[in-house]
Amino acid sequence: MIKSKPFKKLTINLLLGLGGAVFALAIGEIALRIMGISYPSFYQADPHRGHALIPGISGWWKHEGKGWVAVNKDGLRDKDYSKQKAENTYRIAVIGDSFAEAIQVNQDETFWSLMEQKLPQCERFKGQNIEVINFGVGDYGTAQEYMTLKHHVSEYSPDLVLLAVFTGNDIINNSKTLSPDDRFSPFLIKKEGKYVLDLSFKETDTYQWRNSSPRKIAFSVINNSHILQLLNETRIAIKKRRQLLGNQSKPDNQNVVQYLDFKPELYNNNDENWQEAWQITEELIKLIQQETKSINSELLVVTLSNPAQVYPDPLLRKQYFEQANVNDSFYPEKRLESLGQKEEFKVLTLAPSFQSYADENKTFLHGFDNTKMGSGHWNKSGHKLAGELITDKVCISEN
């Protein structure tokens, strides 16, 4: 009995402490929800594409730029659309990677949202309802975009499929050789002289873990707890801060190539692995064209701008292209234009117009104040210009 009193007191103290901690966590959770502070994980495993957006998830993206991200019931970073197309409606489906997903800006600031606003003003679409549906997902290569078209876009009966090609990393992402070893996605590979889809990513440990019940449960818990999201975000911020401290200098004539994540091989095409990557990319675009035709739609390939191409300093831009022995900074655009002429699909190249606009207005079209101006994804100005240029192209295209 004498020994039981200290034990009882200890038990009471522990319960009081636990109760206080639970209460504090509850108050913290409520406070974060009231203030709208959340950092959810937006992605889940997908059997066709490796990963996809989680239907119904929403929250802020602040790692680069700042955008409120709301994923609709069908897993698209867009508002809800009926799969059944209404009468007198012209429907455009946008497929692409993080430039189309565009979580760095708010939805109404994206190029596809601006297209939907501007296209009804075209004489071509007078009296018609216009729908521009965004199927873009971050870190997609062209094979994933093909699978998106095949398994998801076709359900919406689009009149036009807009393939947004970011040559800055799409060519790499399409090559099993050039891609990182831990990339889990479908690939187009050559086997016995023929191109075939390789879906072996589903057999990798990375994919199986991400698709496992324990991992799904863990991320479901995190996505439903603003406190756990904040802790995870703090961890990421600390890691990012350490990286920034390791490289605090601003871009100059010496480090601008690294600063803009510039890849000379993309423009020279002298490397054997890059030649193969380009061939695979072209074959994938042909597959997208075939699939587009099979659903009675039209294809428009839009090549986006790379940061190095549109850095708003002509002298500096010329210098680092020359240092990299690049003779033609628009080689990727010309190659895809040539493919379009050969295969008879429309191509719009944005980089030349972006470069002229950036030089004339001394404006950064890539980059944000919380990252690096001139690098990374399009900012509001980049999306606005892209929306205008693509709208003009679609307006004048023949039916």
Question: Summarize this, please?
Answer:
The chain is an alpha/beta fold and about 400 residues long. The chain is built from 15 helices and eleven strands.
Structure, explained:
The protein has 399 residues and is α/β, with parallel strands linked by helices. The chain has a single domain, classed as Rossmann fold (3-Layer(aba) Sandwich), CATH 3.40.50.1110. 46% of the residues lie in helices and 14% in strands. It has helices spanning 4-35, 98-101, 111-118, 142-151, 167-173, 205-210, 213-223, 226-246, 256-259, 264-268, 272-294, 314-323, 331-343, 351-361, 380-396, and strands at 43-46, 50-53, 58-61, 67-70, 89-95, 129-134, 160-165, 187-191, 194-198, 298-303, 346-349. It has a 5-stranded parallel β-sheet. A two-stranded antiparallel sheet has the order 1-2. Helix 3 (111-118) packs across helix 15 (380-396) and helix 4 packs parallel to helix 11 (272-294). It is globular. The termini are far apart.
Structure summary, number of beta strands: 11
Uncertain segments: 247-254
User: For the record, what is the CATH homologous superfamily label?
Assistant: SGNH hydrolase
Summed over residues and divided by their number, the pLDDT gives a mean of 87
CATH architecture: 3-Layer(aba) Sandwich
Write the layout of secondary structure elements.
Blueprint: H1 4-35, E1 43-46, E2 50-53, E3 58-61, E4 67-70, E5 89-95, H2 98-101, H3 111-118, E6 129-134, H4 142-151, E7 160-165, H5 167-173, E8 187-191, E9 194-198, H6 205-210, H7 213-223, H8 226-246, H9 256-259, H10 264-268, H11 272-294, E10 298-303, H12 314-323, H13 331-343, E11 346-349, H14 351-361, H15 380-396
Parallel strand pairs: 5-6, 5-7, 7-10, 10-11
Antiparallel strand pairs: 1-2, 3-4, 8-9
Helix pairs in contact: 3-15, 4-11
